[in-house]
Amino acid sequence: MATTLATAAEPVVHAARLENVSKSYTTPGGQQLVLDGISLDVAPGEFVTLLGASGCGKSTLLNLVAGLDRPTSGSLTTDGRPALMFQEHALFPWLTAGKNIELALKLGGVPKPQRRARAEELLELVRLKGAYGKRVHELSGGMRQRVALARALAQESKLLLMDEPFAALDAITRDVLHDELTRIWQETGVSVLFVTHNVREAVRLAQRVVLLSSRPGRVAREWTVDIPQPRRIEDAPVAELSREITEVLRGEIRRHGQH
Amino acid sequence: MASTDTKTDRSAELADVEAGLDALETTETGRTPVRRIVVDKVLPPIVAITVVLVVWQALISFKVVDDPSKLPSPADVGREFQAAWLQGTLLDFIWTSVSRGLLGFLLALAIGTPLGVLVARVKFVRAAIGPILSGLQSLPSVAWVPAAVIWLGLNNSMMYAVILLGAVPSVANGLVSGIDQVPPLFLRAGRTMGATGLRGAWHIVLPAALPGYLAGLKQGWAFSWRSLMAAEIIASSPDLGIGLGALLENGRNASSMPMVFQAIILILFVGVAIDLLIFSPLERWVLRNRGLLVKS
């Protein structure tokens, strides 16, 4: 009863909510704390980037949010099961581009007669009309990531987790995919939690940038990015904010050299 | 509506840039023309066989080996084939062995596959029989023939037992290494899509393990065939019908070198033919679909 009332009075206002989440692993040298008291909300339709240097536990954090791992302490809730996109495309090479998307639809419970049309629709959304029957190895790196994006969107999740998805691409392709991701995010209204170590990428894409410190990962600072979209990575305001964030990030990294 | 116009312009421009990148970064892979296949794949083995025949004939013609009971001429062996063909027994010899071999192999498949899944997925089973299974692979299955004869007698069950002992470890081990080599990334991707447990095994693990499994099948067939020949040579009995191994043994008993040669050629021919007609195309098809077959 209480739950119902709470829901009625306060509809779900977050795609993901992390409260004081910590994660530690048991290593031969004892307990190793990877994430220390992370609190973070992602609002519905919000685009948040997580930024940090090596050892900030970005991937651990995404695994927790994706439900692939459990936090040691703290609470974590998401609105349904999030979709996850990796740095490597992770498409299944025994299936065509279209069938990869259809597998996600099938596992998500979409009835068979609708799958084909929905897969074509998603391919069109990432501008890969006609790639349905293509094998993964026949696609370029950028095309693979777009199919992977389409497959992630096929899960109809409220939250899309992205683990440095463009890090392995060349600069021109990455730039184009930034534009694409922004467009698709605006068209679909999905919430995005995007992990990267590239400051400009973070500023180019996000409404909010969250900087994590390293070893253990803590939220160091947050910035709200109110530069209007469409942005370009070389725009002056993007560069300016990137410089500011980079300064703080360098300060964070510098601490680790002073022992 | 200047802003809307620029927005559409931008979107159209982006689509064009993207289409350009896609076109630049993909290469069309067409099929190889038939002429190329003939020159690259069919011609070399024909040349090799011709060379062997020429050298063989030369040894006879120049009297390097002047003893037909040691080395019969290609023509003598040819006449042996012709006689068997005219009597209608040639296909019987082949069919007796091939039907046994394939049936035995299918049994090995039916036993080796679940065994492989168990060894790959259940820790205790792996620790218990994993090493034995790999060890069995290096034990020549001819070593089982005496035991199988004593246990089962001179009959078809004994043949199948020897085939199974030879082929099951290969099939199981192939599947185990196939499953072990499934990239963890695929498993993670599958899990985030909701493919866990049986659904994960069916949609992710088994298809990902297919290349390793096929390699195991190929080796399993080679082992089946070898084991069967060993069994047929050692355990010949009139009740068993004349397979290729028995043909070889009969040739030896009759001191008929042409018959021995005929049997050896047939054994080799069947082994190669099954591989060439069934396993190689299957393996190539799977690898090509996954872009794992590098065209040279």
Automatic annotation (TrEMBL), chain B:
Organism from which the protein derives: Streptomyces thermogriseus
Topology of the protein relative to the lipid bilayer: Multi-pass membrane protein
Entry-linked InterPro entries: MetI-like, MetI-like_sf
Residue ranges occupied by any ABC transmembrane type-1 domain in the UniProt entry: 94-278
Entry keyword annotation includes Nucleotidyltransferase: no
Location within or outside the cell: Cell membrane
TM annotation in the entry: 42-62, 101-120, 132-152, 158-179, 200-216, 260-282
Matching CDD domains: TM_PBP2 (cd06261)
Record keywords, A-Z: Cell membrane, Membrane, Transmembrane, Transmembrane helix, Transport
Family of the protein in this entry: Belongs to the binding-protein-dependent transport system permease family.
Family matches, as Pfam families: BPD_transp_1
Native organism taxonomy: Bacteria, Bacillati, Actinomycetota, Actinomycetes, Kitasatosporales
Domain of life: Bacteria
Record-given protein name: ABC transporter permease
Keyword Cell division: no
